Amino acid sequence: MTDKNENTAIEVRDLVTHYGNTEILHGVNMAVKEGEIMIIMGGSGSGKSTLLRYLLGLGRPTRGSIHLLGKDITELDAREMHELRKNMGVAFQGGALLSSMTVGENVQLPLIEHTRLDRKTIQIMSRMKLEVVNLGGFENLMPAQLSGGMIKRAAVARAIVMDPKLMFFDEPSAGLDPVVSAELDDLILRLRDAMQMTIVVVTHELQSAFKIADRITVLDRGHILMIGSVDEVRNSENERIQSLLNRRPSTEEIHADEYLDRLTRI
Amino acid sequence: MFILEKLGRTTVSAVVEAGYIFALLVESLFWILVGPFFNQSVRVPSVFSQMMQIGIAAIPIVFVLSFAIGVMLAIQGIHTLKTFGAESQVVLGIAFSVTREFGPLITGILIAGRSGSALAARIGTMQVNQEIDALRVMGINPVRYLISPALLAVLIMVPTLTFFSDLAGLLGGAVYSGIELGLSYDAYASQSIEVLKVDDVMQGLYKSVVFATIIVMVGVVNGFSVKGGAEGVGKATTRSVVMAISFIVIADMIFTYFLNR
Questions:
Q1: Among residues A194, B132, B133, B167, which one has the fewest Cβ atoms lying within 10 Å of its Cβ?
Q2: What is this model's ipTM?
Q3: What is the pTM (predicted TM-score) of this model?
């Protein structure tokens, strides 16, 4: 375990990951400051979801280190990781609420598992978090009875119930209408401002990203193209970043022979 | 060369899967036995709820099938023994066959089809919906949270159902023997008790413990290996049933060989 700069909540160094024999991330380096909202942006297949999985400790990288709150999670044993996870909240793309439990039970679950609070206190705390995400009164409904936006907000309530220092969002706006998407953006900003959370958001929704980002990391094919403020990314002259921002297809020439060779390679 | 390569790959993946099953089994047992000392107990309400689903809800179908097996054994036994004029010995045949063989086998196959497949589908769906990942990132071990309660419930309910199946099978044999041979229930029961030893019943119960373990571990491993959405869940469920029943029958054969030498 290495002591990190106090101001840095997340630091990734030279991260290389593989899926089978294919290298997905090619030496990624990035840092997220405490209390900052970092957007990880990129097109499909850029490696942003893979990067998130490794930030969450859901895989062992081939090489490199990932420091969360000063601890290198690639070196932590199960018990240390278990402790660290109490300081992490995650809102998955589809919510990932446990479908066999009510919304309230889902939100209460981390408290039941990690604290010795009595049932009544746990119920009150979960209701408070549901109020934060504007889902007060919905605790007795099953996830299947909620809309997409409500599921995502319930997932946020579950993720913040332990008051984590780090919060991760995977495509929070995906599949939502603009109004609900804007509500979620406001919620993310509130979490940073009111609860001083460090937040990482993986998204490809530009409008949402520009609204909430303190800084943006642009990923492309497993490489980081740039890390910068909203304005720096907007004004970047990098062709691939501009393609992404302007939703233009890549103009890069594809050689038919090489493409076919890649397809047929075993 | 291609066949050899395929055979080699299949063998390697089978060994890897066997190792994975064994590791999961050890971890599940660890949480059941040692979890409470780390303040990480298996959820008791979940164990009871699964005992209800796996055990209590299966009683009617276990009874019907076991009763039918008892009747079939009586029909075959009487028909065969008639050749030697020894129909009355059918009681002995039914008693041994039901307690040692058919009680545990029919219960194992039934629970594999009913609950093993449900377990594979449930875990597979959770895998697809990232619920397993959600548990992990919440610091909740999925093995302790999902598998250990299922394993404990099945380890309690399958032997219990097997004993119930034994009784239902013997009853089926008694009913048919009564009709065909005019044998009273009292006489049938006392003959059965006379020929059966505790070991005969225990042999079936030992088997049922192994079958229970096979059902859970095969269901869980197939559930965890789901890829590709709803279609993947369907495939894993089917694979789980076929694998569990195959393993149960093979394990039964091995057990029968070693326990009856």
A1: A194
A2: 0.83
A3: 0.84
